[in-house]
Amino acid sequence: MTGMPPGPEMAKPSAAQLSPVLQPSSPARLLISTAPNASRLTFDDVAKHFNVPIAEAATALGVCSSVLKRICRENGVVRWPYRKFLAGKTVDDIKKDAAKEKSKEFAELSKCCSVVF
Asked: What does UniProt give as the signal peptide span (predicted)?
């Protein structure tokens, strides 16, 4: 014996007792794009929450922070703009900067990928 007091053996938890996230066939392990609220969110919906940290915004919108990051990056916002908001920028200023960044990226992309015949 190893010095352990006699008693019931520790049983391994069954698959049903594990958290649904840990089970490979669980519906909780869906991709980000299939989250129920993710497909309905627009950039304007997300922009309304730029005045709070990303974790709070994600909770309020019912999605994870990765969904918010993806929506922002698709619209020219590289980082969550909460700090810019604290520094005095308005949500409209942040959206204008994002539009400029997106158009700049598009111009660079079209310049490098244009084919000359």
From this structure: none
